[in-house]
Amino acid sequence: MTLFLGIAIYIILWWLTFFAMLPIGAQSLHEADEPAAPGVERGAPRAPRLVLKMLWAAGIAAVLWLFVAWAISVDLFRARG
Q1: Is 6 helix (H, G, I), strand (E, B) or coil?
Q2: Which of 6, 10, 9 is nearest to 62 (CA)?
Q3: CA distances from 5 to 9, 15, 81 (A)
Q4: How far is 33 from 30, CA to CA, in rounded Å?
Q5: Is 10 within 8 Å of 65 (Cβ atoms)?
Q6: Is the Cβ–Cβ distance between 33 and 46 less than 8 Å?
Q7: What does the DSSP 8-state code read for residue 79?
Q8: C-alpha dihedral sign at 29, 26, 43, 61
Q9: C-alpha distances out from residue 17 to 30, 64, 69, Å
């Protein structure tokens, strides 16, 4: 696996895990029965905790990347002729 391919696979895995984690633990102002300030959408997350989700996505993507790198190195997918 080349360096460029390794980085590209990690970025794709990170985005996939990040988007999959976005709804976890999210609670809207409407669900929490909290009043919204003027101009704030009541369906917006109350506390999205994006930094924590980004760090979790980085860790999960790293583990998944290790599996993909191993699978490519042992030619698990029979991609080489």
Answers
A1: helix
A2: 10
A3: 6, 16, 19
A4: 5
A5: yes
A6: no
A7: -
A8: positive
A9: 26, 10, 17
Amino acid letter for position 74: V
What tokens does 64 get?
Answer: 């998944």
User: The pTM is what?
Assistant: 0.82
pLDDT digits (tens, 9 = 90+) for 2-21: 999 999 999 999 999 999 99
Q: Within 13 Å, how many C-alpha atoms sit on residue 23's CB side?
A: 3
Two tokens at 62? 């790293």
Output the 3-class SS for 20-53. Answer: HHCCCCCCECCCCCCCCCCCCCCCCECCCCHHHH
Q: What are the tens digits of pLDDT across the range 9-57?
A: 999 999 999 999 999 988 888 888 888 888 888 888 888 899 999 999 9
Task: Locate 31 and state its tokens.
Answer: 């669900």
